[in-house]
Specification:
Blueprint (H helix, E strand, L loop, with lengths): L1 H20 L8 H21 L6 H7 L3 E2 L2 E12 L2 E9 L6 E3 L5 E3 L5 E8 L5 H11 L5 E2 L3 E8 L2 E8 L4 E8 L3 E8 L3 H8 L12
Antiparallel strand pairs: 1-2, 2-3, 3-6, 4-5, 6-11, 7-8, 8-9, 9-10, 10-11
Helix pairs in contact: 1-4, 2-4
Amino acid sequence: MKNSKLWMVAISLLIGLHVLAQTPNQIDPQNAAAMMENVQNMQKDMARLKALKPLTNEQLKAWLTETLGELKRIRFSVGDGGPGMVAITGRYNATDEPEYLNTDDMRDVVNTNNKTFQIDVMDGAGTGAEMFSSMVMLNSMNFESEDEYKQVKRVNVNGISAQQTHHKQSNKTELQFFHKDRFGITVTATYMDPDETWAYMEIFDLEDLPPKD
């Protein structure tokens, strides 16, 4: 019970910092009402997730595809994803070339031919439900910003509501969303715009999370 109170305090602080960081024209009037509703539902979500059995490492490994279109998986890691949670990370590259190229003047130059796509999946079931539920609540905030360097906004693509960040100068895209209110998914794609990133995301079979019996 003591831990629950600590988490509620932490959540309140994070929400407050987030709102204070926004300029007046960036604050969505619906944020406050949405957050209050999510706080009320958070305890229910915790109980539901705690009652579920987390996926095993083998189940997560079986879900993670070895290829992603023409991209090849170069590494993965699976196991502890935080307090009481299990997670898996897969990284895919377009080529076998290095991320940086050596030049005659001894400077490292970014190899823009080497597109990379990394996906991180966290299972919120089991004993990590309390922490995971707070993450789901924070992700529900509708925040948008843009400057010459990056654009951050909430999008809905193929039925997925996600926070999307595009770094303009480096052409790097990040996606954050939750699937079935259980799986936290983060995507980081280098040398890819949002459209190309979502095209690769479609290859993953999200409906098979959790795996069908």
